[in-house]
From TrEMBL:
<dbReference type="InterPro" id="IPR027417">
    <property type="entry name" value="P-loop_NTPase"/>
</dbReference>
<keyword id="KW-0963">Cytoplasm</keyword>
<keyword id="KW-0808">Transferase</keyword>
<dbReference type="GO" id="GO:0005829">
    <property type="term" value="C:cytosol"/>
</dbReference>
<protein>
    <recommendedName>
        <fullName>Cytidylate kinase</fullName>
        <ecNumber>2.7.4.25</ecNumber>
    </recommendedName>
</protein>
<feature type="binding site">
    <location>
        <begin position="11"/>
        <end position="19"/>
    </location>
    <ligand>
        <name>ATP</name>
    </ligand>
</feature>
<dbReference type="GO" id="GO:0036431">
    <property type="term" value="F:dCMP kinase activity"/>
</dbReference>
<feature type="domain" description="Cytidylate kinase">
    <location>
        <begin position="7"/>
        <end position="217"/>
    </location>
</feature>
<dbReference type="Pfam" id="PF02224">
    <property type="entry name" value="Cytidylate_kin"/>
</dbReference>
<dbReference type="GO" id="GO:0015949">
    <property type="term" value="P:nucleobase-containing small molecule interconversion"/>
</dbReference>
<dbReference type="GO" id="GO:0005524">
    <property type="term" value="F:ATP binding"/>
</dbReference>
<dbReference type="InterPro" id="IPR003136">
    <property type="entry name" value="Cytidylate_kin"/>
</dbReference>
<keyword id="KW-0067">ATP-binding</keyword>
<comment type="similarity">
    <text>Belongs to the cytidylate kinase family. Type 1 subfamily.</text>
</comment>
<keyword id="KW-0547">Nucleotide-binding</keyword>
<dbReference type="GO" id="GO:0006220">
    <property type="term" value="P:pyrimidine nucleotide metabolic process"/>
</dbReference>
<keyword id="KW-0418">Kinase</keyword>
């Protein structure tokens, strides 16, 4: 069966979206598109150019001379692979200001829709089920308690060897980002009416992946 289909996933930070989406894409042999990485890459460019993320006009201006691409699951900013750079905490703490700008979202959404047009994809983000792929074949809202999401992020940071940040700080940063993402005017994070909600607080990664795969396999 060669039918083109799409799996759209939204949810808050640290819920497990990208980990799960990546594994689902491998199992189904379809492409994974991490839309958060695209907003992160633009944020990296803004900060590298010493621009203020809150200065909308500057951000829009620089975005016009910016090229963001995925090649073999790696993210490229103006031809440079920036997979690691975009995960820095300074990006976490600024990306939501870039992502509230209407003009920026408009262009990102266009790019994302183009990416999903000619092939089967699993795409994750904040507005995928609602705005980017409202007609997706499968829609999931992946979530978990904010404490659990904080613990997961904290564990990742500790494993990288960073020690100057506390769990409480991480949880506060996540809450702040969730708040901006959920309350912005343009394409806020919300549960689509027809999305399947997966609360992963007490689930392993494997359980999450299997749950999604069984729903998708039942439907294609
Ligand atoms: O991985 P994590 O959940 O921490 O974040 P992400 O998915 O990489 O997204 C980073 C940020 O980009 C989010 O907090 C949103 O502000 C923004 N974003 C968005 O507005 N719309 C999307 N489709 C994806 C991300
Ligand atoms: O993309 P998103 O921000 O939603 O989350 P992620 O970066 O995929 O996941 C954050 C961390 O939670 C990763 O280290 C995952 O391995 C972990 N995780 C987990 O421990 N249990 C789950 N059921 C899902 C994710």
């Amino acid at each position: 069966n060669n039918k083109i289909y799409s799996i759209a996933i939204d949810g808050p930070a640290g819920a497990g979206k990208s980990t799960i989406a990546k594994l689902v894409s491998k199992k189904l042999n379809i492409e994974y598109i991490d839309t958060g990485a695209m907003y992160r890459a633009l944020t990296l460019k803004v900060l590298r150019n010493n621009l203020n993320p809150l200065n909308k006009n500057d951000v829009i201006q620089i975005s016009k001379n910016t090229e963001i691409d995925f090649i073999k699951n790696h993210i490229y900013l103006d031809g440079e692979q920036v997979d690691n750079e975009i995960r820095d905490n300074i990006i976490n703490n600024n990306v939501s200001y870039i992502a509230i700008i209407e003009e920026i979202r408009f262009n990102m959404v266009k790019l994302q829709q183009k990416m999903a047009k000619s092939k089967s994809v699993v795409m994750d983000g904040r507005d995928i089920t609602t705005v980017v792929l409202p007609n997706a074949d499968f829609k999931f809202f992946i979530t978990a308690s904010v404490e659990e999401r904080g613990r997961r992020r904290y564990k990742e940071i500790k494993e990288k060897g960073k020690t100057d940040i506390t769990l409480v700080q991480i949880i506060d940063e996540i809450k702040k980002r969730d708040d901006i993402d959920s309350n912005r005017e343009i394409s806020p994070l919300k549960i689509a009416d027809d999305a399947f909600v997966l609360d992963t607080t007490n689930m392993t990664v494997d359980e999450c992946v299997n749950s999604i795969i069984s729903i998708v396999k039942g439907g294609i």
